[in-house]
Write a structure and sequence with these properties.
This protein is α+β, with helices and mostly antiparallel strands.
Length: 294
């Protein structure tokens, strides 16, 4: 049977620099943490409400025995800061990650034809950061992002749930410096001590919802971003001197930003056609237009 080390080695040939393994069992610790958080903070409108679906891979794929978790770094140092988040200015990671994980799954099935595999990337109910943490790929920052020792927090997470029993990795014995930089810099003051997070005050979240309350309007005053927010990552000491991504697809046709006049001139269909290869294309043109400030 194919080994975990062979899978990791092949992933590197696909330019996936970091891969880890965890079991597919329910995570009771994360279930308790998630339930506790939701008692104090509301969930974003696009988050899964059923906690069990978030923490139990077998609810998604009952035959799963292991989860192969991969990190897909996206930082590009030459990419100038614009009015959209770094991750939104490059090719849609959903497509890139699925393409690379499909190749990894094909390799596994070539070696083990009986193996079952299921791709999960951001669109499944599972907590991607939980899986990556359990697979030894990072530790949690106060901003609730997962931090890798080399790539910081500038990465996407994709997983392969598989029927193969693979040797799991251990979580990292490292922790956030808890310097408070992200809490102090957050424009909406959405980050609290002890890893609390109020999504309804997060600028990134506010750029992605259709309408804002008066309080949220106040938060957005003076903000240049029309999609996403990188502030808590930009000030994080763990993100100093991170290397550029080795994934070539992310270098294709990056955007410097979005123009209000150009967006206003597009129909909804034209918007999807022109920007369909970027992560923000799922959002409506009108939702993004609301974020431009005079």
């Amino acid at each position: 049977m194919i080994t975990a080390e062979e899978i990791k080695a092949y992933a590197k040939t696909l330019s996936i620099p970091v891969t880890g393994i965890c079991g597919a069992e329910r995570d009771g610790l994360f279930a308790a943490r998630l339930k506790n958080r939701r008692e104090h903070f509301s969930a974003a409108c696009f988050q899964e409400e059923d906690v069990e679906k978030c923490v139990n891979p077998k609810r998604l794929f009952p035959e799963a025995e292991s989860v192969i978790v991969c990190l897909f770094p996206y930082y590009i140092s030459s990419l100038a800061k614009g009015n959209i988040s770094r991750y939104a200015s490059i090719q849609d990671y959903h497509k890139v990650v699925r393409f690379l994980l499909t190749q990894l799954a094909e390799y596994i099935k070539e070696r083990n034809p009986e193996a079952g595999c299921l791709i999960a990337c951001d669109t499944s109910p599972l907590m991607d950061r939980m899986l990556a943490y359990r697979a030894g790929l990072g530790f949690f920052g106060e901003n609730n992002l997962l931090i890798h020792p080399v790539y910081g927090s500038y990465f996407f997470i994709g997983s392969l749930l598989t029927t193969l029993p693979l040797a799991p990795d251990a979580p990292l014995e490292r922790s956030c410096e808890r310097c408070g930089a992200c809490r102090r810099a957050c424009p909406g003051q959405a980050i609290y001590e002890d890893f609390g997070f109020a999504c309804e005050r997060c600028v990134s979240y506010l750029t992605q919802i259709k309408s804002l309350s008066k309080t949220q309007e106040q938060i957005m005053k003076g903000q240049d971003s029309v999609y996403g927010c990188d502030v808590c990552q930009e000030v994080c000491p763990h993100n100093r001197d991170v290397p550029d991504t080795p994934i070539r697809a992310f270098y294709e046709a990056p955007l410097a930003g979005l123009s209000q006049s150009e967006l206003a001139s597009l129909s909804g269909r034209s918007f999807k056609k022109q920007y369909g290869n970027y992560p923000f294309s799922w959002c409506s043109r009108d939702t993004i237009l609301k974020n431009f400030r005079k």
